Amino acid sequence: MKVRVKYFASIREALGAGETVEMAPGATVGDLRDRLLAASPAHAQALARGRALRCALDQAMCDEKAALREDAEVAFFPPVTGG
Questions:
Q1: Less Cβ around it within 10 Å: N or C end of the chain?
Q2: DSSP state for residue 81 in the 8-state scheme
Q3: Domain ranges of the chain
Q4: Which CATH superfamily includes the segment(s) 2-77?
Q5: For 37-72, what is each residue's pLDDT tens digit?
Q6: Which residues in 1-83 belong to E strands, given as ranges?
Q7: 27-31-36-41 Cα dihedral, nearest 10 degrees
Q8: Are strands 54-57 and 72-77 parallel, antiparallel or unpaired?
Q9: Could you give the angle at the alpha carbon of 60 between the alpha carbons of 54 and 64, nearest 5°?
Q10: Cα 70 vs. chain centroid, distance in angstroms?
Q11: In this structure, are strands 54-57 and 60-62 parallel, antiparallel, or unpaired?
């Protein structure tokens, strides 16, 4: 299934506005993060497990256990962002 990923604040500066990722059925937001961590050194640094990071699934805050669906939108951003 295809998932749209958006990045905000410092993550956007490191990785760009976003991308589309192909995920297996039954995948979670955590699985997506793991996949992105392995995508490149820039992804590994921007989305590192030790880094404070918030996520949203279809514009609702979620944790990494949230299940993905076809054409879902997942956003990653630092805990505090400016406007």
A1: C
A2: -
A3: 2-77
A4: Beta-grasp domain (3.10.20.30)
A5: 999 999 999 999 999 899 999 999 999 999 999 999
A6: 2-7, 18-22, 54-57, 60-62, 72-77
A7: -160
A8: antiparallel
A9: 45
A10: 15
A11: antiparallel
